[in-house]
Amino acid sequence: MTVNAVAFYVAAVLVVVSALACVAMPEPRHAVAAGLATVLAVAILLAVTGAYLVAVVVAVLPAAAALWIWMRARQAATALLDPATAGRGKTWQAGAAVATVAAVLLTWAVVQGGGGWAPQGQGGDSLISVLHWREPVAGLLALALILGGTLGAWLIGHESADEKAYDAARDERRRKQEKIERRRTDREVARAGRGGRA
Amino acid sequence: MTIGSGHYAVLAGLLFCIGLAGVTTRRNAPAQLAALGVMFLAPVIAVVGFSQTEGVLKAANTGVAIGLIVFLSLFAQLAVGGGVVALLARRRHSVDLDSVERLEA
Asked: Shortest Cα distance from A54 to chain B (angstroms)?
């Protein structure tokens, strides 16, 4: 398929601008919104390229995940986007230096590449033949990735009943300990007061 | 003007570097995760772009499957990252990455 040059450049500008907004916007909620806009822009670019299936998946899956989070855990998600944590971290200069070095290396690689980006001619049996878009192996792998990722996220992120019970018991212990400390301090103050009068 | 694989390579490289800058400079964990997502979209663009414009990959339309699997890997990693951020927020009552100096349960 021949890619329309004008459509490609428009989509590419959208991708770059939204990605820059995602990195440059200080407010976390704006940055996350710009990240979602970048995903959408990439979906448009992939559609322009002719990979419609990937474009649909790229557009639908993150939007569905964001919608699910918004419906199920809006309050918790809003709390995570705490405006107090806006802006750059304290070691941002080192991070910016790493990104600059990566940019220089990639530029050098692109300049050295000279257009030979993918294998030409006919290859033999390889991973590519297994991962063909019509192969069931590719579909099963995709399903395993979705299920594995979702299950992993749920296992790590959810608060189990025993965790809740453990946290409650720990809080109760802490409160009791604080009460004992407070009583001890009060007794010592009272004793010191009586000693002073005597 | 013809769009070739070099165009996709440049765009993917640019997106990777922009995302990397966000990952290494952000203070808020979900915002850093969003930047990581931007960074991980670069290989999807590269794989799909190369497959639509270059030799044997173009003929077999294989890039669709590879691009799909690359994107789903990215999605799975971000989902696990989201879980870690939720855990971090619950345990430390903060998503400020400057305050995270040690990884512990």
From this structure: 6
